[in-house]
Fold this protein.
Amino acid sequence: MKLLGKDLNKEILYIAEIGVNHEGNIQRCFKLIKEAKESGADVVKFQCFTPENYVSKDLKKYKTIKKYFFDQKKFDEIIKYCKKIKVKYLFTPVSHDWISYIKKNSNTIKIASGDLNFDFLINQITKKKFNIILSTGASNLKEIQNTFKIIKSKYGRQVFKKLVIMHCVSRYPVPDEEANLLSIVYLKDKLNLTIGYSNHVIGINACLASICMGAKVIEFHFTDNKKRKFRDHQLSLDKSDVIKMIKIGNNYNKLIGRYEKKINKKVLLEKKTLSKGIIANGNLNKGHKIKINDLNFARPAKYFHANEIKKILNRKIKKNIKLGNLINKSILK
């Protein structure tokens, strides 16, 4: 599967979730984009919304959300800046009225964990034929399968080239013991889709471990200052974290290899050298008929493998063999 410039069969896609860590400040947003790009992130991601369609007005959170709101003109500026510094961008519509705007600017969309069961949103997105990154932080397997069926009904077999399922745990932050990264393997086996990981665990270890579990898309909250008051900053990675994570993560991806068990071609050339062959257990004279006690085992399996002992028993020797020497096919009658 290819997504946002990466071949996910071979590479890891790293998404820096800026979200609303800009806190409504466009200059801070530009700074976060620049630092994410410098850290090696492939994509920067944002939450776009209309406050009234995101959180009900009678909640305290509404005031914060409204303060962090960017309108379309602001996002036009953000997109222009991303293009200028050559970093890809991605949006999560946490209110459904932004889907058309996103489609004008991107063929890929991220669906938040809380909207996995929001069928109206899912159907609107599938009508636009987006590539979809679907987060699962608040859903069980049955719910994920139900949403997958909706998407597959619109995409057919193309769903396997257009949908990534993200393992996630919707807590902020997630304690280590609740990260449950084996869910990555579980979802891969159950759905046969490309699986990624959206991180809420503090630090880089969960992201790195998820790569070892087979995650091909790594999403992480990104900040320029973990000490800022807003909650998401504290569980975010900063520039130095991401530089380190990507360097180690790409190395882990090389180490992991493929889901198979075949002999490496170079190892295959050495297989006879590594395997036990058959040697003389004493000095054997010409004309001697070989018995079981005449034989022992040592590397390499140049002429006979240790398992081929029946091919040697009861055969006569054409010339003398010294103790410890390999039994050669050419000296047997």
Observations:
- The mean pLDDT is 96.
- The chain has two domains: 10-256, 265-331.
- Residues 265-331 form a domain with the Type Iii Antifreeze Protein Isoform Hplc 12 fold (CATH 3.90.1210.10).
